[in-house]
Specification:
This protein is an alpha/beta fold. The chain contains five helices and 13 strands. It is 30% helix and 29% strand.
Length: 289
């Protein structure tokens, strides 16, 4: 089971840009560019309005909202709502220490078992009681990075304890095809990506059954000024459950019509350049990086 991998909404976009004669636009160090990682979560972290945080009902709802917002800013898919049976949950309480209030946060798994705790920075009792937006936002912003770090540690511990998790074995990958390229582009890009993934160390299999990740390609040829075309190549990495785990995006300019028929000189370089980014997605999803 992946926790912060599952409780992670990561969005990083480093698109490639290239121009020139074929095949130079597609040459480069594999994986150092054209990387776009996005890890949509399967479970989520529910942040219900806290009943034991020494706040009024309205203030408790506002605090749950700003806390969830701060957590999302730290790549945790947290939402201010009542937890569903499959949700992880953040329980918030507060301790009255006289002149100060100390927020306390506990992460609970879907079974309701505590997985870790964070003690927040003390807040003056008067400010906490007033529950003005600035006070609640400051408390949330202080706690969010520490909670995100806690979730990462919990996730890694769970994966290390599971001998069948992707943390402890190589992922199995299948490339299911490329669509949208003219000429022989779909076929050559598909085969080239399989070879490129093997070259960077991935276990590539010919069938979807038993695969941990599914890689598929999409190509768009867009006319641009100067008698050129912009080649947009996206390599989408899906999990076995069908959720998108990430993608690699490549953008290049080529002479118009130069790829209408034959991709033989460029399919290999395109795949080689993208394979490192695909591997990065797989490693991050597997929590091995």
């Amino acid at each position: 089971m992946r926790l912060r991998g599952l409780l992670l909404a990561l969005a990083v976009l480093l698109p490639l840009a290239g121009c020139g004669e074929l095949p130079e636009p597609f040459l480069g160090n594999p994986g150092t560019a054209a990387l776009a990682l996005r890890q949509p979560p399967e479970p989520r972290l529910a942040v219900p309005p806290p009943a034991t945080a020494l706040l009024s009902d309205g203030a408790a709802r506002r605090f749950a909202t700003v806390l969830a917002h701060s957590l999302r800013a730290h790549e945790v898919p947290a939402y201010a709502l009542r937890p569903a049976p499959t949700d992880w949950r953040l329980a918030v309480a507060a301790a009255d220490e006289g002149a100060e209030i100390v927020p306390r946060y506990t992460v609970l798994n879907p079974q309701g078992l505590p997985q870790g705790k964070v003690v927040g920075t003390p807040v003056s009792a008067a400010a906490w009681s007033a529950a003005d937006p600035a006070t609640l936002a400051a408390a949330a912003d202080q706690a969010a990075p520490r909670l995100a770090k806690l979730l990462t540690g919990v996730e890694v511990a769970l994966m290390r304890a599971d001998p069948n998790s992707l943390y402890n074995r190589a992922a199995r990958v299948v490339v299911t095809g490329v669509t949208g390229a003219p000429g022989n582009g779909d076929t050559l890009l598909d085969g080239s990506m399989q070879l490129a993934l093997k070259a960077v160390g991935e276990v590539v299999q010919p069938i979807r059954k038993g695969a941990d990740f599914v890689v598929r390609g999409r190509v768009r040829m867009v006319p641009v000024a100067g008698d050129q075309q912009r080649v947009e190549v996206q390599w989408i990495v899906d999990t076995a459950a069908g959720a998108e785990g990430g993608r690699v995006v490549q953008l290049h300019l080529v002479p118009a019509g130069s790829l209408d028929h034959d991709w033989g000189t460029v399919a290999g370089p395109i795949a080689e350049q993208a394979a490192g980014g695909v591997r990065e997605v797989i490693l991050r999803q597997s929590r091995r990086k």
